[in-house]
Every structure is written in structure tokens, then in C-alpha cells.
Specification:
alpha/beta, Rossmann fold, UDP-galactose 4-epimerase, domain 1, two-stranded parallel ribbon, 13 strands, globular
Length: 324
């Protein structure tokens, strides 16, 4: 096969769906693999394999390519969700499933001699102690150690980072690690408990009647930054294509906003008149914001899209889902 080849693990998920589309636009032959197919739109992958990557034989099957070697493997598969999921007694399930996926995939990539491997970690690896001030979180890449993530999800991600980087070092594999910060956009999970804040708030606003209220977990002054999925995919491609070794890199936006203000932004986009009601609920860390100093230095990359522009694309999509 003279055409370049890519394997996207987690292709049934939100980011994986968009990454497959990007690969296709770049002319790659793409295999998607996941335990499920995309929920909202058909995958554009040339081939889609349903497989449980927790099992070594399934991971090996995913890497099998008629005696050929994949040019690029993007490992996005994980058991994950938003703060409501990772803070509600799913710790053992998350750690068990995601650790097994990564143990199986790292070894399968080694055996198959995959040319490039990209592992998507998370901003959840950063210590809680550096995220207590909602106005001044510290999330530079060098702040991950001494390690003290606030969730078991974050601990598993940090372990898996070390797993892939150690495989890269000992087996001379071309491995890249990226720490994603709150990705949003169309095709994302928006109900069922695994949705993240932008989608959850869009759903609440879309479902609310004029003059009603929407509930916000916590005081609402906790802060986050959110990255549009198209810019996320662009960053992932730049990281994968880099020929030189890279450290683990943040991939996110530096446009920080409180959860209350995010909700008010979505309400304004909707055109409705609604009020906020803050209630007890999981908040996660008090503040988190991507620090893009290192990725800008290494790859000259910075997101260009404003949060409001991205939300003006997400809200109508979720509103349409709610109405169906």
C-alpha cells in the first residue's frame, strides 16, 4: 500500500470521530477501532473494527495490516467522562479498563513495529495543590511532579504516560504524549452522565423553558478553559507529524472562564431568558487552564478560535439533538 496508513483507537468517540475525518481529508487510508461505533454520524474510516482493546489479542488484531506496518497510531481509547462520571464511584472501573487498554496497545504497537504512536493523556494529571486558586491555576507541563492528581482517572493517565514513554525509550519507538484540556464540539456526548461541562450546559439550556432556571454544580466560580475539537485535531496532527522528540505537551486553550460565565454565554447564544441556580455537586479542581508556552515553543502552535465562536457551533447542534 503506497498510501499512508493510520489507526485511530477510540474512533467511536467524539475526538476520534473528528480525527478520522481529518486523516481522510489528508489522503490517508484509515482504520477506526473501538468497542462501539460513533453515536451520531457514520465514521468515514475506510475500515471500522469493533474490538475490546483491553484484551491483547484484540489490540494485536487492530494493528494487523496484511503484513504491513501502520504509519501512525493514535491511541485515544479510554473509559472516561466528565466530572460527574469520574467523581461518582467509577474509579476502579476507569483505572482497570484504561490501564488494560494501554498495556495491551503499547505492547501491540511494539510487536507490530508501528512507526509513530500518539497517546492522548489529560490535564487531570496535574496536582490538585496547583489548582486551588480559580484565578491562578498552574498547569505547565513541568508541574505534573511531584504527582498528586485529584482523581484516580488522573493517576491512571499519568501511569499510562510513563508506560508509553518508557516503551519509546527502551524499544526505540517514536512515541508522542499529549495532555488534552476540555475538548468540545459537535458529535460530543451530551447526555447520559459522561458528558462534559459545555455539552451538559448546552443541553440544560436547550431543555429549559423561557423564564426558567438551569442548575450549576457548586458555586460556579470554578474556572476552566475549553478547546474547540477542530483546533484539537489540528494540534494532534502537528504533534504526530513532528520529526523531533517531544516532551508531554499540553493541548488546550488559555481562554479561561468560570462555569457560571460559561452558562451565561450559552444562555445568551440561545436567545432565552434564564437564570442560574447553584446547587451542591461535583466541581473537580477549583481552577484549570492550559499553559501553552511549551507547545508554542516546540511547534509554534496556539489555538485561534474564541470560545464564543466555538459555542455558537456547539449549541445549535445540541439543541437539534434535544429536539429530535
Amino acid at each position: 500500500m503506497t498510501q499512508k496508513t493510520a489507526l485511530v483507537c477510540g474512533a467511536g468517540g467524539f475526538i476520534g470521530y473528528h480525527l478520522v475525518e481529518r486523516y481522510k481529508k489528508e489522503g490517508y487510508w484509515v482504520r477506526g477501532v473501538d468497542i462501539k461505533k460513533p453515536e451520531f454520524s457514520p465514521s468515514t474510516a475506510d475500515e471500522f473494527i469493533l474490538a475490546d482493546l483491553r484484551y491483547p489479542d484484540q489490540a494485536k488484531k487492530a494493528l494487523s495490516l496484511n503484513g504491513m506496518v501502520f504509519d501512525e497510531v493514535a491511541q485515544l481509547a479510554a473509559n472516561m467522562g466528565g466530572v460527574g462520571f469520574i467523581n461518582s464511584n467509577h474509579d476502579a472501573e476507569i483505572m482497570h479498563d484504561s490501564a488494560l487498554i494501554n498495556l495491551s496497545m503499547a505492547e501491540a504497537c511494539r510487536q507490530a513495529k508501528a512507526k509513530k504512536v500518539l497517546y492522548t493523556s489529560s490535564a487531570c494529571v496535574y496536582p490538585e495543590r496547583n489548582q486551588l486558586d480559580p484565578n491562578n491555576p498552574r498547569c505547565s507541563e513541568d508541574s505534573a511532579y511531584p504527582a498528586a492528581p485529584d482523581t484516580e482517572y488522573g493517576w491512571e493517565k499519568l501511569y499510562s504516560e510513563r508506560l508509553y514513554l518508557t516503551y519509546g525509550k527502551e524499544y526505540k519507538m517514536n512515541v508522542k504524549v499529549v495532555r488534552l484540556h476540555n475538548i468540545y464540539g459537535p458529535e460530543c456526548t451530551w447526555k447520559g452522565g459522561r458528558e462534559k461541562a459545555p455539552a451538559a450546559l448546552c443541553r440544560k439550556v436547550a431543555e429549559a423553558v423561557e423564564g426558567g432556571t438551569i442548575e450549576i454544580w457548586g458555586k460556579g466560580d470554578q474556572t476552566r478553559s475549553f478547546l474547540d475539537v477542530d483546533e484539537c485535531v489540528d494540534g494532534l496532527r502537528r504533534i504526530m507529524m513532528a520529526d523531533h522528540p517531544l516532551p508531554a505537551l499540553n493541548l488546550g486553550s488559555e481562554e479561561m472562564i468560570s462555569i457560571n460565565d460559561l452558562a451565561l454565554l450559552i444562555i445568551r447564544i440561545s436567545g432565552k431568558k434564564l437564570t442560574l441556580k447553584n446547587i451542591a455537586g461535583p466541581e473537580g479542581v477549583r481552577g484549570r487552564n492550559s499553559n501553552n508556552t511549551l507547545i508554542q515553543k516546540e511547534l509554534n502552535w496556539q489555538p485561534s478560535k474564541k470560545l464564543e465562536d466555538g459555542m455558537r457551533k456547539l449549541y445549535p447542534w445540541i439543541e437539534k439533538q434535544v429536539r429530535q
